[in-house]
Every structure is written in C-alpha cells, then in structure tokens.
Fold this protein.
Amino acid sequence: MIPRVLTIASSDSGGGAGIQADLKAFARCGAHGMSAIVALTAQNTLGVTSIAEQSAEFVRDQIRAVLDDIGADAAKTGMLFSSAIIEAVADELTGRGLPLVVDPVMVASSGSRLLLPDAVATLIGRLFPLATVVTPNLPEAQALTGLDTEERAVLAERLVVMGAGAALVTGGHGATPADHLFDGRTHLAIPVARHDIAATHGAGCTHSAALAAGLAAGLSLTEAARQAAAVAGDAVAHGLAGLGAGDGPVHVLYCLRGSDPPAPPGTGGLRPPVSPPREDAAKTTAPPARWLVLRRCGCGGQKPRRPGPGVPVPSGLSRRYRGLDQRSWKFRSLLPALFPRKAKS
C-alpha cells in the first residue's frame, strides 16, 4: 500500500509553504497526502496579511474524517496558531500511535508571527510528548529552549529533555550548514548544501513533510532525516526565485514535467528523464485518414464485416453491427472515399 501521511497545518494562499508545500513534498516522496487545515492565510512572497483561524471542532472533524476511514502511516504538524487548536490536535492524536513530526512553526520566513505567544507553552506541553521528532530551525530552537547558542547539539538535547522523542535542528541558519539529529542517545550531524538563491519560502515545511513521508514509508529516523535533508536541499536549489517580489518558493517538483510519460510503478512518483529523439522519428507518419474515421465510427480501425451464419455477435459489438444492418446512410456515404475500388486492368 502507498504510504499515507496526514498534515495538520495552515494554508498558504501563495502556494509556497504550509499545506501546499507539505502535499507537494509528500507527492515528491511517493506518499499519499491528506490534510486537516487549521487556518487560512492571505499570504504571498512578501508576507502574511491576514489569518482566518478555523474552529477547534472543525479541525477535530477533519482529523477524524481522515484517520477513521483512510488511516495514516505518519502525521506532521505545521502552523497551528493558537492554544485551542493545539489542544484539539493533541486530543485527536493521543492514543493513535502514529509517528508524528512536529514542526514548531513560529515565524514565517517573511517575519510574520504564525504562533500566538501564549500558545508556545501549550505546544511544548501537549505536542512534544506525542512527537517522534521535532524539527525547529535554529531561531525556533533558541526561542523554544531559551538558550542563546548556535550549538545545535546543545539545543537538540534540551528539546528532548523538554519532552520530545527526538530533535532535529535544521541547518539553514547560523554558521554551520548541517542538520543535527539527537534521538535521546546518539548525535548525528547531516551536512547540507546552502544555495545562493532567493527562493527558500517553504523550505522548512518541505523538510518536515519529507521526513514524515520517510517515516510513513518505514524508514528509520536516521534514514528519514537524510531523505528530508536531500529533498529540501534539492527543492531550494531549484527554487522559483522569479515568482513574486519577495523570497520565492522552493520547487520540490522540479523534476516532473507535464509532457513526460507517467512514472513507472515503484519509482516514488518520479518520472524518468525525457528520452532523446529516435533517429527514425522523421520516418513516422500520422495514422491514415481511413483509420481515424473508422475509429470515430467505433469500428476499431478495421473494415467492418458482418458475421457469417450461425456466428454469435459479441455483446460489445452488437450495436455496431445493428447499425450496419440498418444501412446507415451516413456510413454508406463514407464508403466510396474510404474504400475506393481499384480499376480493373
């Protein structure tokens, strides 16, 4: 079965971050994405101009509707905005046993606040104990722990002490370009590339979504963390810097092109590169007009023939032959052009 991942987060009307980024990252990793939207944002590359929070009961309804029918192999949270929403999410996820990636989204890349100040304690107290791993960036890790240090190992250890199952402090900020994972026992630094491109909007969402997709597919936490680093880094490298007047969105689906053939099974949704043109491509010709017309008439590209005596007419073809029996004037009018008689020598 295809891995199923639920994202519980907010909508970005600009399509760069939030629910939109999560679903694209799930698809990039070959997973089926589902969503519970907790807030709608009026947002573009310059910032967030308005937020419409959904009711806690509606958020509960969305989570139940998905999990009680389709189910999930992992879940992730993003922008949750308020204490009421966090409480509702924690209540619905408690006891379900899902691997959970908590991305503690606090401030947008444009600087807009996405988590109310009084909701920080609720996030730590209710969601951290449910989290398989939390994935703050450096400024978020510093704000959550209250530590003024860029030592990701120290920050990750403190986040685990605060209740998270594991902590992964991402490497997009600060002097050291490396994600740092601490699972409560072992430290692991995952080097990441930094790209000189003004298109990082949605990088954090893409990273945590790819991590959740990896856990849903059965990867270990270490393997999923490496996958997340690779997918997010790739998305930034191919970011859409030309979109909007601010920091453009990452492009996690850059490798998919609408003109390509469908992806083969087992490839994680990635289509193969476009094949070079064949040398004999110029020799190919369009189907003959006769075939096209007969196809349109429902004859499958073959000259229709009535069955002989005693031969049953297949049910799928009976209507076609019945039409011929009636000597349809439309079809008869086409016959001279379709099947010209050869002149006798």
